[in-house]
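## retry 2 of 3
previous attempt timed out at serialization; input unchanged, resubmitting
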Amino acid sequence: MPEKMEVDRKLYKNKSNFGITCTKYTLFLLNAVFVIASVMAISSGISLTVAFTSTYDMMAYGVDTVSTLWLVIGTIFLIVAFFGIFAALKESTASANIYGILIMVVFVWQIAVSAYSFSFLNQTQYIVTNQLKRMMIDYSRGYQPEVDWIQLNYQCCGINDPSDWQKFDRYTTPSPRYDKYDYFDHLNSTTDAQINQIDRLPVSCCEQNSNYVNLRCDRYHKTGCFDPIHRIVSASVMLAGTFGLIFSILQFLGIVLGFHYARLIRGKKTQLQVQIWNTYHGNSASDHQETDYDPMQS
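## retry succeeded, writing output
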């Protein structure tokens, strides 16, 4: 009977060690993935900040909050991931439990940031339209490099079409002055119809190799800049939210593994303490029996 108990104890010990080893290296690999993911989150936040600040200048509408949150959560996630690697290698119950709590906090926060990112999808049209309008109005007062970059790179002009430039600053087409008789003649005339056409545009609206004289070019881009910019903004927001949701699933796995790892380590330590207790008390009992037996022999 004692031999059977010893065999069962060894089988349980081997099974326990195998479970701890598997969980240990799974947790290690998962946190290695988390390190890569957190670096991607930080780089995405930096890229989003740089892109919107230097190119589109749309940070004032809350996109700055999204990018800042991703920078912060990416940095915290990186720290927690390194701590998870440490906890996996250390095989400490306390470290595994602390890791489980930390990754749970990051999980809740990332879900909130993802939801906040998706909330901007319904506002992207408003953000792009109003910011492009603002940049066009203040084109000659500081926004010329940004607007020219957009119109040249996306081969577009204005918000919806080139006629948007007729509303702003020096690109406004002056209304012709007529006396009351000439005005009625002008309404019925076809020779002056070009006055109402698009004729004043910034040079970035012109096609390549077109002639640009007195704010006019003979060939210009016919489409507005709203569509390409809106696609970029929407894709950035969607990517941020989707990225967060995907990795929140892996974070949930990290929570389960962290607490399961702590339980396995606690069980192993408890088993070791029981073995020490049994060994110590077993030896004490043997010594006691031998002490009682010797006088009888004498």
